[in-house]
Amino acid sequence: MVIFLFLNLKGALKGQFVFPKSILINQGVLRREHVKGKMAMRVYPTWLDHLNLTASKTQKWQGDYFIDLSSEVDHNRVAQLYFT
């Protein structure tokens, strides 16, 4: 599991990404046999808009692994991402 914490220091927006290792392997982020992986990764919280096409596609698959902590937290969603 890989976790990224995202804070918008100018506002009240915050959240975190919780990516299972298997997803990052499937997306080519982590190394697997005969595939190098990436040196860096950009994350796009659900509240970002006006993204280019590539960033929008990335945001779409990342959204399944994002927890918005700006308001009421869905504890079932948190448990699902952390413990399944």
UniProtKB/TrEMBL annotation:
The source's superkingdom equals Bacteria
Pfam families to which the protein is assigned, alphabetical: MepB-like (PF08877)
Designated name of the protein: Uncharacterized protein
